[in-house]
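Q: Here's a chain of 66 amino acids. Please give me its 3D structure as tokens.
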Amino acid sequence: MSDTTYTIVKDGDGYKVEIKRLGGFVREAGGFTSIADATSWVAQDQRFAVRDEGQEPIAPPHLRVV
């Protein structure tokens, strides 16, 4: 999904992913223990978005609208 950007940021001892969709809310997916975990989640979310745009993304450990 080209209108979505993902940014991995440090969050205390862990990491979170900021998800920005064109015309949508900014969301954060938190609770990742490493950059690799966050990167893996982003890749999986992108695969699901391409496969079926009507499908909800997988639930990260913690997801909230900011």
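Q: Can you summarize the key feature?
A: Strands lie at 4-11, 14-21, 26-32, 62-65.
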